[in-house]
Amino acid sequence: MEIPAFFASYIDQKMMVSDGRFSAVTPKAGERFLPLNETIRKNLGEERTPVVIVDCDSFELGEFSEKVMKHLRVPGKNVWLMTCIRTVEDVFDAFNKDAEFVLAPYHFIASDAELRDICNVSDSVVPVISIHKGKAIIGRRRSADAVTVLEKLVSIGYYRNFILDSENSLDGYTWSVISEDYPSTIPIVDRSLEMEGFHHTIMPFPV
User: Fold this and answer.
1) Which DSSP state fits 197?
2) Alpha-helical runs (H) found in the chain
3) H or E segment and range at residue 80
């Protein structure tokens, strides 16, 4: 199943969606804005499918902001909220009864200790491993093998994970290993890729 991602911002007391984009470091809002719910309803209809809402306001700040979370209502859809999580306190702040999962980019999380605490307090927070030049970003100017990072997350207790490869730089062999050894992993990729061996794939929705 292809799951659409919408890049959301709270502007002038309205939830808006833009022609945003993923990048290896942080998602970015675009320049063209439309009403969020109207855009989703017009393009996806009444089908109850998951939608990923990317919290562009928090990523722009580089820390969690409650603006998008507080006003996020997407009737008839299972919402997966991608936002900036650094500490376990951010998890409590980001709680939204309308969001099924919170997607948290791994390299924003402050430390491995915070990563373990987050896992202990919520099974709804799911790490997102960002790929740059074929490697997983694990911190400022630090990278590691993507499969090694997945193995570490699973050992902590994260049995569902996401891998964001906006550059299409992860090789086919690595993807095949991930699909076989970590079948609960969900890729986040550009529309130019067709992923094999995965039940779900997240792709930006064209606005």
Assistant:
1) S
2) 36-44, 56-61, 66-70, 88-93, 112-121, 146-156, 172-181
3) strand 78-82
Contacts of 172-179 spanning 24+ positions with Cβ under 8 A:
174/134, 174/146, 174/147, 177/147, 178/146, 178/147, 178/150
User: Distance between CA 22 and CA 168 in Å, rounded?
Assistant: 12
> Please, which residues have CB within 8 angstroms of residue 129's CB and are 6 or more apart in sequence?
106, 136, 137, 146, 149, 150, 153, 161, 162, 163, 164
pLDDT digits (tens, 9 = 90+) for 144-164: 999 999 999 999 999 999 999
Domain that holds residue 106: 2-204
What is the chain's length?
207
User: At 153, which CATH number?
Assistant: 3.20.20.70
Q: How many domains does the chain have?
A: 1
pLDDT digits (tens, 9 = 90+) for 87-111: 999 999 888 777 899 999 999 999 9
Residue 142 β-bridge partners: 139
pTM above 0.90, yes or no: yes
